[in-house]
Amino acid sequence: MKHTITIIGLGAGELDQLTMGVYRLLKETSHLYVRTKEHPVIAQLEAEGLTYTSFDAVYEAYDEFEQVYESITSILLERAAEQDIVYAVPGHPLVAERTVQLLLEQGEARGIGVEIKGGQSFLDPLFASVKIDPVEGFQLVDATSFRQDELELRHHIIFCQVYDAFIASEVKLTLMESLPDDYEVYIVTAAGTSSESVKKVLLYELDHEAELNNLTSVYVPPIKDEELLYQEFHELRRIIAELRGPNGCPWDKEQTHQSLKKYLIEEAYELLEAIDEEDDDHIIEELGDVLLQVMLHAQIGEDEGWFSIDDVIRTLSEKMVRRHPHVFGEVQADNAEDVVVNWNEIKKQEKGTVKESVLSGIPKSLPQLLQAYELQKKAAKVGFDWQDAEPMMEKVSEEWEEFRTEVKKMDPERMLKEFGDILFAFVNIARFYKLNPEEALHTTNRKFLNRFSYMEDRVAGMNKEIDSLTLEELDVLWEEAKQNGIE
After folding, report:
1. What does the alpha-carbon distance between residue 31 and residue 27 come to, in Å, rounded to a whole number?
2. Which residue in 29, 207, 474, 485 has the fewest CB atoms around it within 10 Å?
């Protein structure tokens, strides 16, 4: 015989809010289970002789709420395998009740029926208490389980299940990542009952409230100040769209994928410079400039009807999950080398049976030193590489002598080719020692710039022009810069 779990809601907080049908079911059942006895209706029914089994002790047995809910669900399903039972929860069974969702998911598979009956949600009286219309945009959030990136700060937000100061503190700290410390929020307890309390507090005071209990919610009004939304991705997207819109910026509206290419390269190098400087504020600014280029290209794609930033994000997300089966799947990867092997194998599978050159896939727009580095790295994967540095050093010497030979002949075309061979040979050495040649040259360029700037400052201090000094005098200043540790 198939047994049933009948789930009923205890309403927002008072006995007279129960329907007659729910009241009778509570009074007549001999197998009543309640998620928590900490609800005003339970206390009132106890006075009328109600008997029940509560799960309050389960909360004390586990550290995570999800574990609590899974344990309650398991117990209820075990009991229902033997007989029909009634399960009572605060409010409405289908509003912020994780155990109910688990029962609906697992009941059928266990051959147990699950029926939902009655109960007033706390939401209707809460809307009335804080005087909001949810049609303007509303989000209900479980305070015991949420992420900051899920919050829609443009909407009315209600955090339910703010049981105690610890949960209130978690809500506060998360909100303070996006909102001012003195942002006004509301603590609402027992909404719609005779003991209702609505208290407006500043955000940083949220966990100082002593009257928090399982009938407490926190209401966060929507942001009206657009500047507070500047850190939200959707706001950045809106700004970029407006810049390229009919009433936007003439320069932004003229840009194309081709015209923006040079700016992406420039911004990437400026980011590298900020990283070298180890200046976090500068890194933030330059990362923003790189992101701007991504957003502009995506907006151009959307304006032309070909793609949008959503396509960019989806494609990237799919690729990251697909190429990291050791994180999102069952594949084992014990170290970085295993990750690279898996990554390359997945790339091969993605490309299918199309035969490609070993050297394909290197962007032609890469700086030439990096192109040389990538060409050599790909060739090395199929064994076209030396196993130690000595023959690489000898190759540099060989190419140097060939260049010197062409210099004696003063053949510009041959000199250019041989000089390229020297650089290519040096890149080979850099790769062997796991040095990035582009980064190495960038470091040297910065060092030259800093030392030359030092020389200019010293010459200015002499009330002279730098071009009035001899090479010998300049060399002395250069050595002075080196001695002073200018890098």
Report:
1. 10
2. 485
Distance CA 227, CA 116 (A): 45
Same domain, residue pair 150 and 108? no
Distance from C-alpha of 126 to C-alpha of 92, rounded to nearest angstrom: 13
Taking the CA atoms of 11, 16, 19 and 25 in sequence, report the sign of the dihedral they define: positive
Distance CA(161)–CA(152), nearest Å, equals 19
Residue type, 340: V
Last residue of a domain, one of 258, 291, 322: 322
- Go through the chain and tell me how many residues it has: 487
Structural domain boundaries, residue 51: 4-121
What is the model's pTM? 0.64
Phi and psi at 152, nearest 5°, equal: -100, 95
| Those residues with Cβ within 8 angstroms of residue 35's Cβ, 6 or more apart along the chain or in another chain | 54, 55, 72, 87, 88, 89, 90, 97, 99
Q: pLDDT tens for residues 2-52?
A: 889 999 988 877 787 788 888 888 888 888 999 988 888 888 888 888 888
d(CA 292, CA 243): 12
> How many angstroms separate the Cα of 224 from the Cα of each of 153, 198, 204, 431?
9, 22, 19, 54
Q: What is the CA radius of gyration of the chain?
A: 34
Report helix, strand or coil for 463: coil
Q: First and final CA of the chain: distance in angstroms? A: 83
